[in-house]
Amino acid sequence: MSILPVSSNISLKGHVAIVSGGARGIGAAAAVALAEAGASVAVFDVLAAGETVAAAAARGAACRGWQLDISDEQAVNAAVAEVVTALGPVSIIVAAAGVMPSGAVDSGLSQWRQVLFVNLDGTRHLVAACYPGMAQRGDGRIVLVTSVAARQGGLLAGAEYSASKGALLSYGRHIARNGAARGVRCNIVAPGVIETSMNAHLPKPDPQTLPARRLGTPEDVAGPVVFLCSDRANYITGIELPINGGQLFYP
Amino acid sequence: MTAPAATSSEFSGQLALVTGAASGIGAASALALAARGAHVVCADIQPASATLATLRERGGQGSELRFDLSDRGSVARAVAQAAQAGRIDMLVAAAGIGFSGPLLSSDDDWDRVIQTNLSGTFATLRAAWPHLQASGQGRVVVVTSMGAYRGGFHFGPEYNASKAGLIGMVRHFALHGGPDGIQVNAVAPGFIETPFVAGLPYDPAGIPLGRLGQPEDVAEPVAFLCSQAASYVTGTVLHVNGGVFYG
């Protein structure tokens, strides 16, 4: 796992974070970055997260993996209960679990349901399991990982992927609007083209067409995630932060 | 809880020019960058000596210069003077003016605010650009306003027009700065308690997070946008408003 861009001596000591999709890619980088900042980290993934756990542990953080299907509500509820017992009350969620199969405007109903089930329902299960405790204690920092596809659609992944990410944007804003008075902040990070195993099967844009002249890395996303989870973003909620090297300028 | 200040050496060896550094968001940004090891040139039409004194008390390095944002010649001289301390790696453009006034503001008010906030900030960026190119890791953060997106009640239309204009400028420079390694972003603060808005009837009851913002709440995001943690963020507007508006 490469050197992290996290800086400014951000401290998340005493915080317990759950990172979904933390075995690889953006989730893995976020999990390690949170560990670097001192948080205890629970990694939820359908894949084994041994590499992430080892990298986090190497930074002195308490870190454990839970291998589960994020779209299985009962499994998520059970795992969150175990996290609370093992690590303590959860104050941070980074929802990075997602799937992105190749597709079209109509990729068929079964793929539509599968993608929404994982990307949208899965994130809902994780937030639903943690939100009451966060609101009760008056401390929650939630970051949902969406995509530039929520804004401009996609060309390679199916419409269901764009739709799932657009739905997460609305969902995140609903959490932000209702959570603010209870000490729960929720923000959205919207990566552009980040090189991960999730999109290894898809062609990539020519980096020379991007203002940054390069594709993104998982660490490019992890830095902003940790910032948004930290006290340094205490006056920020409901925002969407594009991390795309200038691919699309918004909001 | 207000965003707490960081201390680190991440900007050690870098030079930051912060305009509007005598008070408010500019002052807090100067302190935030200095606390991370940058040498900060505090520029303002007012003396920035109080900012500089605090900065040095906290172990930071900086200097002070006076300039008038509404005067292109003054802006060019100020940037040249700042660059004497070294190359300019970071520009935080926080200087600006605004007037409470009628909806149908006068030509004088319109021209003065546009000339100062929009033309003056362009002049600042234009003068700083070669230095940022030479830096190879230039960072620009322009302080705009939530009012650029949703209008406002307290300042005239020229204020929000100037801030909206700055966002277009930010995107243009972000588009063209990439090949030189320059990232250009904006922050859009909401209701922040500063001398700039003293006496205006801001009501915390309308703010989801339940309080007015403090200059530090904006300064920490400014420092984030200048940092390696924002290495793939350019051309965007970071809203800092306590949940009033999402962008």
Q: How is this structure best summarized?
A:
Chain A has helices at residues 25-36, 50-57, 73-86, 109-137, 149-152, 159-179, 218-229, and strands at residues 16-20, 40-45, 63-67, 92-95, 140-145, 184-191, 240-243. By secondary structure, chain A is of the alpha/beta class.
Report on the architecture of this protein:
The complex is a heterodimer of chains A (251) and B (247). Chain A is of the alpha/beta class and 251 residues long. Helices cover 40% and strands 15% of the residues of chain A. Chain A has helices at 25-36, 50-57, 73-86, 109-137, 149-152, 159-179, 218-229, and strands at residues 16-20, 40-45, 63-67, 92-95, 140-145, 184-191, 240-243. Chain A has seven helices and seven strands; from the N terminus they run βαβαβαβαβααβαβ. With 247 residues, chain B is an alpha/beta fold. Helices cover 40% and strands 15% of the residues of chain B. Chain B is built from seven helices and seven strands, in the order βαβαβαβαβααβαβ. Chain B has a seven-stranded parallel β-sheet with strand order 3-2-1-4-5-6-7, sandwiched between helices. The longest helix of chain B has 29 residues, at 107-135. The relative contact order of chain B is 0.16. The model of chain B has no long low-confidence stretch (mean pLDDT 95). Chains A and B meet through helix 6, helix 7 and strand 7 of A and helix 6, helix 7 and strand 7 of B.
